[in-house]
## 1
Amino acid sequence: MQLKVYHRTEYHYHAPVYDSINEVKLSPRDANGQVCKSCIVSVVPPVKLNPYIDLNGNRAHHFEIPEPHQRLVIEARMRMETAATIKIEDLPYGVEMSSLRELGKRDDCRPFLQSSPYVEVNPEVWREAIDMMDESSDVFQTSYAIMATIFKEYKYDPGATVVTTHANEVVKKRQGVCQDFAHAMVALCRSLTIPARYVSGYFFDATRDNSLRGSEATHAWVEVFVEGHGWIGLDPTNNKVVDDTYIVLATGRDYTDVAPVSGSYYGGGTSKLKVHVAVRRVR
Amino acid sequence: MLSRVADSLYWLGRYVERAENLARIVEVTRREDLESFRHDPSDSLWKPVLFATCVQEEDKELETPDDPAHFITLDRKNPASIANCIAGARENARVVRDQISEEMWLELNSIHLFLRSDAAERSFHDDPDGLFRRIIRFSIIFQGLTQSTILQDEGWHFSRLGKFIERADKTSRILDTLTFRTGEPSAMALLAVLRSCSGFTAFRSEYRDDNSFRNVASFLFFSVNFPRSIRFCLRRINEALLEISGTSDGFFTNEAERLTGRTLAQINFTDVDQLFKAGLHQSVDELQQNLNDIGQCIFENYVLLPSELRDVVRTEGLQHSLLQQHRQKQQ
Amino acid sequence: MRLGRDLERVGLDGGAGVDGGPETDDVRRHRDQAVVFISGSVIERDADSHGLRLCCRIQTSANKNQERSGIPEWSASVTAFVWHGVCIEFGHPMFTDYATDGFFDEMFSAKGGQAFPHYAKIRDQIGSMSDEQLREKQRHLDASFLEQGVTFTVYGDGDHGTERIFPFDPLPRVIPADEWQVIEDGLTQRIIALNLFLNDIYHEGKIIKDGIVPEEVVKTAAHYRPEMVGVDVPQNIYMHICGSDLIRDDEGNYLVLEDNGRCPSGASYVLENREAMKRAFPKLYQSLGVRPVGDYPALLRKTLEFLSPRQAGMPVCVLLTPGLYNSAYFEHSFLAKQMGIEIVEGRDLVAVDGYVYMRTTRGLVQVDVIYRRIDDDFLDPTVFRKDSLLGVPGIMEAYLKGNVVLANALGTGVADDKVTYAYVPDMIKYYLDQDPILNNVPTFLGWRKKDRNHMLENLENLVVKAANESGGYGMLMGPSSTKAERAEFAEKIRENPRNYVAQPVVSLSRHPTICPEGIEGRHVDLRPFVLCGEDIEIIPGGLTRVALNKGSLVVNSSQGGGSKDTWVL
């Protein structure tokens, strides 16, 4: 699918701020069936954009704004060609839970089995996960069951949580938005020793009635590692196996690793944040 | 709408009307002249016509050109000639080209090019009636197009204003030629005046054969239904002004409306006896002064900046140049 | 009677169509086609030669052996023309003699002479028209342009000027979707970088402090406006409308020749050309599924309204024109009308107490956004050129206070300067951390050591020009220069390196164009129009300009250029 994304993040400061240092992870890389045809990240006030690749292999940019300013606008415009890596007729069943033990030794899985800033692997979470997994001994099936349970039983409520809400709270209270659902699912999977990572990105709502959630903002979902098949995307907010309507921006242990825009600055006063995301299909 | 555009539409309407009226007058006078037995140049029929239609500095005796018909029709050195009126109309049309329909522009452009060409000169010598008819037909077509192809909004009202002010002015001037000489005007002179206004048939249906000075004056001043009468024109002027400002009849919101209302009321409530008692020439003079004032007030109200801003130094230059322009056109 | 004889030779009778008629020797011999069946015929009197012309559809049989019997298999159906029964042409007669002459051609591949797939339908339809039919189409088109008034004015001495149609060629230029996608991405990237650059140099100047662009290149640019330093413009957009001229090198790569960020013109011709082409070739147009351009005025208006400082109510936008006597006046009034905004001249506006007003019959109406087609220099006689009659005294005060918006902003000329042009790839790298998607024509700057060395070593292949507009240092046309001239220039460059820039000789691509002698290749360029407002919108296609004179590379209307419609699939 050919998709076009326009993502705009705007900060308004009531009083001028200065010495602002920022990181953005807004450039998707070619992977998992997606090809980035073009991606332009631009910042106002104009800055020199310094690129780097982070520990998770995500493309990132770093920039500084030393001078006083009251407005910061970050825009990303991208054109992507996506392809589903998983076919509906060929879902990655067949990997036993018992084989998960071996994965702990792999470098590319270990970080995603341990606790991280937003996610803690603890007995309470494990108990919840056991309930969700039914009697399945299949990795993908279990992961899918966790996703479906979250979708069915958790309440999607934008006002219920904040950006710093920890996975523990989400698992306990069973409410939140896509970021929280993803954190919860990551926690639940990891507690069952299924390597799970947090994904930030966008998706295109192809349904006629726009019933899917999260298409007007940056979205978050989960990828679980199924041996022999690689990282498989599952979206607990919409109960979907990730297909060609999704665009991956960055992956990591949790939100800390993938935040689209993060940074710090000097200055008092309050700030207002406006985010606008538009995902369109190109004919 | 932009003041400059309103101004141009006003003058466009005015110039086209003027060209048509001149064509009518010249056509009739030429024909009368041919039939007259007099060959005394000092007593020519053209003197009053020239007086009525041309630019004239006060207290200067107007010299009769050798070929007055040509002078009024095609002579480019005569600022009030038909050719120059059309040129003026075209200049104004250019300014507002996006407001008028393409057909209007093409008609105007084509008559303008024709009048500047040798073909027009030849036509004047070989078939002058054909020439005048062509000019009159152009005006009729142009007015028809104005009526049917442009939006009948503010702009359209401004062009009507120009047309009817011009028409009222010309009718009064033509009438005034009868007072040029002392004594009662001849039957032929009366006829010529009626024909110049294309009013012969209409007059006959209102007054039958009673072709008197009084009746002609009454007809041209007071006729309710004749489209070239002064009263008819003033009513249209009044209507147009009220449409522009959205005011109801009987009220006024600016000086132009007030003057028009008053002048119209005077005409509505005067009769021909009053006219002659005051003196026809004086009455015509007064009317023309009123028309001038109305024109000036329209300009001041809709084109110039509001009065509070006249004191601003920066804009003085602009105002001055506009006023200059206007004065030139007034003639 | 001639008629009978002609018909005899092609084996027809009486002018009525005959299906499956007998073949003739003449026909057979031509191009070794097997059997020719003639169906449907029209006989016309040929105006030029007073002879008779038989136009009919001739279908060829694929199978050489198949003769009159049965139902033959038709291969390609072609339209052929018979002149006095003498010869019949098959195929696409209009293109049979077309030569690409070693240049990159938009329609025909240099190797093998095949038309590119996206031109196949055009080759088939237009290629099988007769010369007469094609010229008839051209006449129709020209007449409709004249009628619509799609003209530009050429002023002679003291005259009211003659209005001429901008010459139009009916053969459309076609750009396939994937090629256009790259152009779109490249232009988007470029306008973002240019706007960031303008923002930067009028504020912190980071790109200068970091040594990427020399300060004097910016400060000595002819259109740099010190008045704009520290001024914040609405939405931080300086260039709202940009027309970047694209050309293709001999391998077909799109290159940016220059950016026009001041008052790029030609959009009105794009719209009018499209309307004309839709009338002239409706079926062809529809069958190709060309992307429409008709919403340009609406998009432009949306862009203007987006900039308005007014908090509530509908923004008042106007188009400021130098007036009737400007050669682009047609475009100004056309666009204003299409957008539904008022067209004004300087004298219609007045600035009072830091606000700008329109003089209307209702009094003064405040203006929010001015789409100005007047150069910076003439905008305000109290600030810039004192002798300007086109501007509005005091408009700068209102602008700097933020009470009125100018599109494009003041001072955008720095970005479309010949010298800053060379730094655009560096701007893209600096602000966006990217390589340019659309490359510049390689440009060498005398004051950059590496460039200077290249220039000195390659003078015979380069065109060397003066760096700043005031010039006067002459120009060297490398390929046609003598050794002595080159040596002299090399000396000049060594002495005053900062006065010179150089580019390789640029070859433009060619496109089939209707010329007096038939269809021949003529050089073309492309000017797409980029709008930068709430989002970046680019009209699919743009104005393809064609240099009508044989061998000429000059596409300007005033110097023998014309235009074509551009169809993006």
Note: Chain C is about 30% helix and 25% strand.
## 2
Amino acid sequence: MDTIQQVVSETFSREANRTLAALIGTVRDFELAEDALQDALLVALERWPVDGIPRNPGAWITTTARHKAIDRLRRENALARKQVALQALLEQEELSGEEEMEDTSIPDERLKLMFTCCHPALALDAQVALTLHTLGGLSTAEIASAFLVPIPTLAQRLVRAKRKIRDARIPFRVPEARVLGERVDAVLCVLYLIFNEGYTARSGNELIRRELCDESIRLAHLLTQLLMQESLDSEVPEALGLLALLLLHDSRREARVGPGGELILLEAQDRSRWDSSKIEEGISIMERALQMRQPGPYQVQAAISALHTQAKHAEETDWPQIAALYNILMSMTPSPIIELNRAVAVAMADGPLQGLALLDRTNLREELSDYYLFHAARADLLRRAGRMRDAREAYSQALNLCHNERERAFLGRRLKEVIQQIS
Amino acid sequence: MRYLLLIYQDEAARAKWSQEEVGAEYEAYNAFGAEAEKRGMQSGLALLPSNTATTVQVRNGKTLTTDGPFAETKEQLGGYYVLNCKDLDEAIEVAAKIPGAKDGSIEIRPVMEFE
């Protein structure tokens, strides 16, 4: 009995987000669609052990959930909005008839669902939670734990977002060409945020953090696949670029944390622990993107990451090429953080003084004055240039601004070294 | 679905506009009005500045009348449209075409329909 129930719930979770997308597409109401799907799961748990697993579980779930949605709507007051949803459901019933249980052609509505979940009229944290919940199938508790917020807070965030989608009528469709680029960017941004939340070392359950990384990669895969299916060719290169970037970052996941949980910097990582199959996949996807000749920021970042992974030893890193790529990135999306990274790459390629010259420009110093990594990078360059007194000051500034214990320990060690050299 | 598009603008800044700027905006709203008609405009009005506003509250049966708008904000409500749009994306597209979006803000509110 246990095993069949396991099969039922596994089949369900495999089919669920596709079915959910199709159902939301019909009823335009996230809560109703989720409730109906939940009802269908209960029916499956009762029937499948007796009748066996249907030949096409996805179609069975869709049809059953649709019946359940009709039941739910009939029980409720006949508001006009409900009538519209009911009408749409009944029309589908008529179209498909009974044989749909065998039909394999449920429309894949997940791309539309991505655009709805990542709509700019929703707050960014709601976009992230909604994407993980409806497309990733993560539970409220899992998402809450990953983002270190109380479960009721996250549940509330999801409910509010779903109701705004319904009440303000946030569309469920592929956006018009005029805004398509920016809407795809919004989806990419959410996927990158999800990945980073799982990737950057903060406290929280390690398993769930890993799941965030895997999930964002899975969704980026799905997004590129769906964009290609819809022939939205102009949007494919950057989606591939993000996918490549995530895979390349992820290839280093095991090597970037030490046995005590401490963060290991790129140059000090044991490169034999990098995941070579992910590197290979990432690089081949990046090359495919670059061949489309529509460069964008994600592709450039993937190219930078690829150059790091291609160096067998830290000393073999092609810093001049990386510095050149940061130049390109700056011209696409100027930002002080990218400028900081560029300065570090230039320092590695041409020497610390060249890097310092870039860092010490007034506008950058002002913009990043509260950012500890700016002071840490500057301190490092000063130390390597032999300007120990200036380095001491910069390390102290970095320490004042840094709240991550592990990073503080690292900065503290460096500060001590520098002080010893002065005396 | 009907949406209320509220136009908020900085009145202090607008008070310093030249004749030409005021004229150009008038033209732009005329042009937008033609577009709004196509979208099934239900109503749309421009308001006098907020220094003409009066706020009324009834508490314990007493009417409290005060000078000024309900909330003092950096940008003030200067006008509105009620339009028929297919969904929020269409409302956003139309809102972006309101001349006031260039120097102010447009708040989009879905209208509650009683059935």
Note: The beta strands of chain B are 2-9, 43-46, 54-59, 62-67, 76-84, 105-110.
